[in-house]
Design a protein that fits this description.
This protein is an all-beta fold. The chain is built from no helices and 11 strands.
Length: 128
């Protein structure tokens, strides 16, 4: 079992920055991949970033690449998402997720179905 709690969301103007955090408890944090997803009203949950257990590998879709950075601190059981140059289209509820079947540095899960634990979400609103 893994419990995940996100924090750090809020309201920011376009061009601004936010850092989201995801605190994990339960199963050994350093043994599985983690990811961030987001969901805007009326839309499907969308992949934002993923990181392997060791943090050696990360992956982003083109929509956020170069603006968002995923990281993790295994000693603190915490994952982060640094979001810069925010745009109104980044507005969504952001979720952190754990992919406990992925413990390799060569596999990065990007689909919702590959993750088995989810946080409750944190709202990010970017005003124009």
């Amino acid at each position: 079992q893994v419990q995940l709690v996100e924090s750090g969301g809020g309201l920011v103007q376009a061009g601004g920055s936010l850092r989201l955090s995801c605190a994990a408890s339960g199963r050994t944090f350093s043994s599985y991949a983690m990811g961030w997803f987001r969901q805007a009203p009326g839309k499907e949950r969308e992949f934002v970033a993923a990181i392997t257990w060791s943090a050696r590998s990360t992956y982003y879709p083109l929509s956020v690449k170069g603006r968002f950075t995923i990281s993790r601190d295994n000693a603190k059981n915490t994952m982060y998402l640094q979001m810069n140059s925010l745009r109104p289209e980044d507005t969504a509820v952001y979720y952190c997720a754990a992919a406990t079947r992925y413990n390799s540095d060569f596999q990065l899960p990007v689909r919702v179905s590959q993750y088995d634990y989810w946080g409750q979400g944190t709202q990010v609103t970017v005003s124009s």
